[in-house]
Structures are given as structure tokens and as C-alpha cells.
């Protein structure tokens, strides 16, 4: 039951916002009493924290499934971008922006978690890209990751919802062009064509 509540709460938080969804709303949606809801979660903040943690795990599992496919590193990044677009297509505003505004402590913990998990994923992607000739050899990998994350998180914390997906693709293109070889640029152009069509 707890997992079902987390799943439903996560959907509602993404669609309607962390602030506007109440414990009453979630209880009504789950056709349960508020008392039952409080049996599993002592307050809304705990529910927000656990549901964001569950979303984080779902994202991480999705990324792992994509990296297991053995795509070239540039296509892999675009496949991950598609996965995120699909996962958050019903979100009316940026979940990261909402967390930062209404639950700053949870936001800070989520960001630390994401930076750790996703920076390792990006590092592996860059190393494979160098080995396979898609990315240049003479790059500072850690600095590239910092730059890329700074851009992506800035988009999530500031951009209007309707522009966010477009900005994310532009950020990925910018990141890739900065480190790509000629072979990488050719693959990037192919992925951009596939992504937009």
C-alpha cells in the first residue's frame, strides 16, 4: 500500500505541484481516509521526501536500462533525454524548481543524491566517448560535467515549463559540441535530426 501511495502522490506532485497537493487530495485520490494515509506518512514533508526519492530511483533505473543497450555515447544521451521527456511530460512546472522553492532541505538532499549518481553516469559516457572516438581526448572530464550540470540545473530551476524541453536539448547539443570530434559532430547531427522528427 505504501508504494502505491508514493506512486500516486508522485504523479500528483508532478502534475499539480508540490505545494498545491494536500494530504486530503491524496487520500481522496486513493479512496482512503486521511487517518490511513498518516499511518504510512507522519506528514506531507515525509511523503514529499519519499516520493521524490522514489522518482530518483525510477530515473536511475531508466538510465541503467538505456546504458545497458550499448548505444554509442551520443545516442545514449539522446535516449536518456527522451526518457526524461516522457517521464515528466505531464509535469506542469519544473519539479526541481518547486522543491527548491517549497521544500529547500529536501531539494538540497535530492541535488546531492543526483549529483553523485548522475555525474558517475556522465563520466562513464564521456570516457566511452573518448575511447570510441566520439569525444576529444584532451578534455577535463570533471570540469565538463560541472559545466553541463550547471546548465541543466539552471534550466530546471528557472525555465518556463513550455520552453524547458527545448532548452534541455540545446544544453545537450552545446555540451556535445564542446567535447566532440568530427565523428562525434556527425553523430550529433544525426541524433538532432532523429530527435526533432
From TrEMBL:
Keyword field contains Hydrolase: no
InterPro entries, A to Z: Homeodomain-like_sf, HTH-type_Tx_Regulator, HTH_TetR
Sorted UniProt keywords: DNA-binding
Transmembrane segments: none
Limits of the HTH tetR-type domain: 1-59
Residue ranges the UniProt entry marks as DNA-binding: 22-41
Protein's UniProt keywords contain DNA-binding: yes
Official protein name in the record: TetR family transcriptional regulator
Amino acid at each position: 500500500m505504501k508504494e502505491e501511495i508514493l506512486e500516486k502522490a508522485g504523479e500528483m506532485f508532478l502534475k499539480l505541484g508540490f505545494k498545491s497537493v494536500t494530504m486530503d487530495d491524496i487520500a481522496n485520490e486513493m479512496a482512503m481516509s486521511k487517518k490511513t494515509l498518516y499511518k504510512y506518512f507522519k506528514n506531507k514533508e515525509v511523503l514529499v521526501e519519499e516520493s521524490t526519492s522514489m522518482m530518483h530511483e525510477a530515473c536511475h533505473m531508466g538510465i541503467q536500462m538505456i546504458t545497458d543497450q550499448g548505444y554509442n555515447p551520443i545516442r545514449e544521451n539522446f535516449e536518456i533525454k527522451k526518457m526524461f521527456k516522457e517521464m515528466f511530460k505531464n509535469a506542469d512546472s519544473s519539479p526541481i524548481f518547486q522543491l527548491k522553492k517549497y521544500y529547500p532541505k529536501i531539494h538540497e538532499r535530492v541535488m546531492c543524491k543526483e549529483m553523485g549518481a548522475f555525474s558517475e553516469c556522465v563520466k562513464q559516457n564521456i570516457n566511452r566517448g573518448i575511447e570510441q572516438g566520439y569525444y576529444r581526448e584532451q578534455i577535463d572530464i570533471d570540469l565538463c560535467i560541472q559545466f553541463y550540470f550547471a546548465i541543466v540545473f539552471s534550466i530546471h530551476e528557472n525555465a518556463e515549463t513550455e520552453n524547458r524541453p527545448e532548452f534541455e536539448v540545446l544544453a545537450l547539443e552545446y555540451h556535445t559540441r564542446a567535447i566532440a570530434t568530427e565523428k562525434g559532430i556527425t553523430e550529433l547531427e544525426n541524433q538532432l535530426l532523429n530527435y526533432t522528427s
